[in-house]
From TrEMBL:
It holds the Pfam family tRNA-synt_2. It is found in: Cytoplasm. NCBIfam families: asnS (TIGR00457), PRK03932.1 (NF003037). This is Asparagine--tRNA ligase. Gene3D superfamilies: Bira Bifunctional Protein, Domain 2, Nucleic acid-binding proteins. InterPro entries: Aa-tRNA-synt_II (IPR004364), aa-tRNA-synth_II (IPR006195), aa-tRNA-synth_II/BPL/LPL (IPR045864), Asn-tRNA-ligase (IPR004522), Asp/Asn-tRNA-synth_IIb (IPR002312), NA-bd_OB-fold (IPR012340), NA-bd_OB_tRNA (IPR004365). One of its GO terms (molecular function) is ATP binding. Belongs to the class-II aminoacyl-tRNA synthetase family. It comes from Bizionia arctica. It is an enzyme of class 6 (ligase). It comes from the Bacteria. Homodimer. Its EC number is 6.1.1.22. Residues 131-467 form the Aminoacyl-transfer RNA synthetases class-II family profile domain.
Amino acid sequence: MKSRTIADLLSKENTLQDVEIKGWVRTFRANRFIALNDGSTINNIQCVVDFENTEETTLKRITTGAAVHIKGTLTESQGKGQSVEIHVKSIEILGDSDPETFPIQPKKHSFEFLRENAHLRTRTNTFSAVMRLRSSLSFAIHKYFNENGFYYMHTPIITGSDAEGAGEMFRVSNLDAKNPPLDEAGNVNYKEDFFGKETNLTVSGQLEAETFAMSLGKVYTFGPTFRAENSNTSRHLAEFWMIEPEVAFMDLAGNMDLAEDFMKSVLSYILEHNREDLEFLESRLLDEEKTKPQAERSEMSLIEKIKFVVDNNFKRVSYTEAIDILRDCKPNKKKKFKYIIEEWGADLQSEHERYLVEKHFNCPVILFDYPANIKAFYMRLNEDGKTVRAMDILFPGIGEMVGGSQREERLDVLKEKMKALDIDEEELWWYLDLRKYGTAVHSGFGLGFERLVMFATGMGNIRDVIPFPRTPQNAEF
Ligand code: 4AD
Ligand code: MG
């Protein structure tokens, strides 16, 4: 007799055999029915206890949250909604769970409460489903790149460069806090941070990924990135995971094709492999929708939304076209935008992005050719001298999912741009070398993994799709 997972037991027609299972009690009803879960599936298996032949002391220890080891016979179930159940022959309590203090009771908890108990929240259906989907999406991402000839590269976490030039970095320092080195003016000399170099946590692996693209051709990174922005929104984290492909000899049009194909592929993967979790999350969302006024309810269910993205082309729109749409529109009859777009060159706020994807086009939108002065220094300048080959992919319900570009491959143009932005050439001498030795057209993008998980699970807050969220409020775990 071999120990099996609940997913395995529920997926096969193998009744009337002895089985052995370990898991956590979700509920125990009428001194007889245990709903057991082991994390392998959203579904519990019902274990029927022969209470007359089980000691009273053991029965008392079968409480929500307890870890148990059950031996019994797998039998066809008479109960509704389950094909099989286990008739328990023996039960061992591996770990007690005090019902008075165990925070995860069999009832609806608020997501705020569960965030404070992030170490236990994956004992709930919602969070276990989200984490299984997160895992599946990670696998699908590696699978996609592997099958398409990309190499997986690890880029540094501690780095001396600010890839985005936005200054949103966490300093990394091994300075002696009690006795820090001082500069001539008597201030702490942070230039000594990391054995004599000023360093920070990476905001993006892109610049290093470019070095690999310029030798291995097609590469990607998938790792943690850090942003010291104090944004308390439902879409920002201080620590998040980013997927960044980078490809030599590929232009912006190729970059858009790659991003679209990639996203469709990983989303199809979960439609095929994570059906039960998606159906569970979909029904959770339907319940939530019922509490809203009719006009605000979503027309599509979670699975329909994912299918829609997989089956339809993303709309490709230039920044200039988008501005024309936004300039003379009102999001609804009464209310205008908080920030009115008056002029070409203005940066889009999330309300504008949402209007474009959710009201105007009603599908994912790839916005491209942005004004140079609102985008990062490394983007390829267009022939018009004022726009760059940038692209952002906007998703309904999420906003910006992807940011990418064709990179500036011309040494002189790049140097000029850096000078205008006061970026020290010496800091990025190695990056400039790529333009000196065998430069070529190349492009890539960054996809915020948690935003993809939000879309795929329908979760409304980014803090609920990462195991331990790092935000200005959440850092104790
Ligand atoms: O648009 P961003 O800043 O682009 C870059 O970092 C480029 N170097 C990527 C590249 O071309 N290789 O970030 C890329 C994506 C965003 O579109 C968003 O999905 C996500 O990363 N992102 C965040 N996700 C969660 N929390 C934050 N604070 C995020 N900041 C960006
Ligand atoms: Mg961006």
